[in-house]
Structures are given as structure tokens and as C-alpha cells.
Design goal:
Elements: H1 3-9, H2 14-26, H3 30-43, H4 48-52, H5 55-67, H6 69-78, H7 82-92, H8 94-114
Length: 119
């Protein structure tokens, strides 16, 4: 969807972009999320910060739903800069974003597997 198409239906082009991020994260389509971001900031360079700032929250929300809050919180405590790292990878391109997010998801999944199960 082009910027002109976004603006026909919404006052701010960021609103549908953020909804698209939710949709793509929920479907584990991380490459598509990064490509959508790149296309958006190409048309709206001055919104780079506003477009990238919510991405770590969107990803954390998705991973919490998928693996549980304890697993994701444990990961974030072990990797305090994960949010900044994720935004930097997003700005580097889809390959960097997918690679980092794959690593994050693998580690969160391992933490979830190793979590003590209640009796």
C-alpha cells in the first residue's frame, strides 16, 4: 500500500502501519514486517523514529503471547539492550532484522522449554 492510499483512509499514515506490524508479527512474518517498515520510511523519512519505536513492543507482545511472560522477561533481563538492538537491526534491513529476531525467538523458546512445570 502506498502512502497516498494510507492517507485516504487515515489521518496519520502511522496508524495503519502499526496495525500492519501487529498483523505481521502475529503471523511470524518478520521479513515482511521489516520490508513494510523499509517501504514506509522510504516514503516518510521524517517518521523513522515514530515508525520504529513501537516495533520492540509489538515483538515483545507477540513473543509473550507465544512463549509466556516469564520466558520473555527472563530473556530481557539477560539482554538489557534487546530493544535498541532490534531497532538497529530494523534500520539495517530485513536480513539483519530477521536474523536477530530469529536468535531472540530461539533463546526465548529455549527458556520456555527449560521452565519448571508446575505439578
Amino acid at each position: 500500500m502506498t502512502a497516498a492510499e494510507y492517507q485516504k483512509t487515515h489521518h496519520s499514515p502511522l496508524i495503519p502501519l502499526l496495525a500492519k506490524f501487529d498483523e505481521l508479527a502475529a503471523a511470524d512474518q518478520y521479513r515482511a514486517l521489516a520490508e513494510t517498515y523499509a517501504a514506509f520510511i522510504k516514503e516518510h523519512e521524517t517518521t523513522r523514529y515514530l515508525a520504529s519505536e513501537p516495533v520492540p513492543f509489538k515483538i515483545s507482545d507477540h513473543l509473550v503471547r507465544k512463549y509466556g511472560s516469564s520466558s520473555f522477561t527472563t530473556y530481557t533481563l539477560r539482554h538489557a539492550t534487546w530493544s535498541s538492538d532490534l531497532r538497529q537491526a530494523l534500520d539495517k534491513g530485513a536480513d539483519a532484522f530477521v536474523a536477530l529476531l530469529g536468535d531472540i525467538e530461539t533463546q526465548v523458546a529455549e527458556i520456555a522449554k527449560g521452565a519448571k512445570k508446575p505439578n
